[in-house]
Amino acid sequence: MQDMLSRMITLSEEDSGMDETFIVDALSGLIFGASASTGDVITLVMKYLADFPDVYNQVLKEQTAVACSKGNGELLNWDDLQKMKYSWNVVREVMRVATPVPISFKKASTDFWYDGYFVPKGWKLCLSSAATHKNPDYFPDPEKFDPSRFQGDGSAPYTFIPFGGGPSLCPGKEFVRSQILVFLHHVVRRYKWDRADKHEKLVFKPFPRLTKGLLLHIRPHQRS
């Protein structure tokens, strides 16, 4: 009875205001976020690491240092993930230039004015995180792939929003972060790869997709 669906059903029976529609929406988002969009981000991370060998080398250096700090057979833990700062900056930059969920929809819960426009209660609003991520006011030279833009204090609040923000912040953010970083930790320490087709296009329909699915030449590292 400790899985998410069981807990939601239990809460719905306690007059918590959590009805069937809410449960369906929450689980649909969880399945989508934990599989489809996460897989898209991992694919794009592989693409950009192939395109930028210097970035790959820095990720490899960081992940090797984390591995060397572990005992023989010791698994990664939460503290290890906190050491992967550069690797996570690379992932964040991937999610900025190729936002996995480029738009989202909200419903106005009350009447309000914004920038001279009146929005009535009940209207559906479309938020374009992809447009926000390419706004040069927030991200200078927005088409350039540059993980260093997230160093230090990083981006201003509510300008980098692949997981949403405020009360609607994605509850699976840390789960997704852990998934991607653990994957990176193992793959970069074992393999180096190159794109088999360097002319393959990245398109948005509206989700980011590689036209041929990212064909790679993968080779293991030579170990002494």
UniProtKB/TrEMBL annotation:
Binding site for heme: 170
Reported cofactor(s): heme
GO MF: heme binding; iron ion binding; monooxygenase activity; oxidoreductase activity, acting on paired donors, with incorporation or reduction of molecular oxygen
GO terms for biological process, alphabetical: isoquinoline alkaloid biosynthetic process; sterol metabolic process
Family label: Belongs to the cytochrome P450 family.
Pfam families, alphabetized: p450
Keywords, comma-separated and alphabetical: Heme, Iron, Metal-binding, Monooxygenase, Oxidoreductase
Protein name as catalogued: Cytochrome P450
Classification via InterPro entries: Cyt_P450 (IPR001128), Cyt_P450_E_grp-IV (IPR002403), Cyt_P450_sf (IPR036396)
